[in-house]
Amino acid sequence: xxxxxxxxxDERLREKAxxxxxxxxxGSSSWHFPGWAGLVWNGDYEGSVLSRHGLAAYxxxxxxxxxxxxxxxxxxxxxxxxxxxxxxxxxxxxFVVKAPSAVADALVRAxxxxxxxxxxxxxxxxxxxxxxxxxxxxxxxxxxxALVFQLSPLPGTMLAHMPEVLARLDAMLAALxxxxxxxxxxxxxxxxRNPEFLTPDFARVLKAHxxxxxxxxxxxxxPIEDQLPLLRALWPGPLVCRWNLxxxxxxxxxxxxxxxxxxxxxxxxxxxxxxxxxxxxxxxTTGAGHAAYVTINNKAEGSAPLSVHxxxxxxLGETS
Length: 320
Known about the structure:
Layout: H1 11-19, E1 24-29, H2 47-53, H3 55-58, E2 66-69, H4 71-74, H5 79-86, E3 94-98, H6 101-104, E4 107-109, E5 115-118, H7 125-140, E6 144-150, H8 156-159, H9 162-175, E7 187-191, H10 200-208, E8 212-217, H11 224-234, E9 239-243, H12 254-261, H13 272-287, E10 292-296, H14 298-301, H15 304-316
Parallel strand pairs: 1-2, 1-10, 2-3, 3-6, 6-7, 7-8, 8-9, 9-10
Antiparallel strand pairs: 4-5
Helix pairs in contact: 1-15, 5-7, 7-9, 9-10, 10-11, 13-15
């Protein structure tokens, strides 16, 4: 098996990592990026090699204590596949896992992403348990951090009937098994792509089942400051945040951002405003004794590892 060597880490980064709140875990969305050479990898590796063998090296970086398994959205992983990931990381590492699209997307989509027809299994309680929660629990065990139901954009017909959508979400959350004691640090979070969700009724559904809102930093949603009232309504509790895409690129700007930011080895569009507010939320959450899981995409600022570095400085009150 090819061995991916971790990058040599500046001692200052280790010192900063030691000063961070132990309940804070920062990371990225996946780890298969050759452009992270010198940041995460010591050497040049093909993306396919990193995808299969890079996780252990990634997890040796002192600031990277979580990662989002986004691939589970596209095809549900088995318990044994989750277990293989868990075996590659230290005991204090935690995974953020996206629910499969089969349960989290209201539409069945073509390969190009276009919605073709309604998904009859959307928010199906049995499917959520059997194909998502149980395999993740069995495979990751104590290394499970957050189970994220990222609900893809709803069609207009469903947005016009939000009480029915919330009732369906309520029924699914009610059916999920308790995560403890198998995964003492685990939390269920719901991420959305429609601002119509950001209501007191949505907060009540989440709170009724001990779930939280995944702070989704994406142009399809209002900026971070306009999402914080929903977190306050759920207080006290953990923080789950996925910083997905810089607002500069608009709601459908993933490909534009990818073209501008590759190979993801520098901050192209720094966003200190979002970083500063997120640092305050992290401080409040961990200071009250609750876990914080924050994953950052390369398309947030240009390089996920460097965004993590900059966010660490914001949390510590230092200048990058």
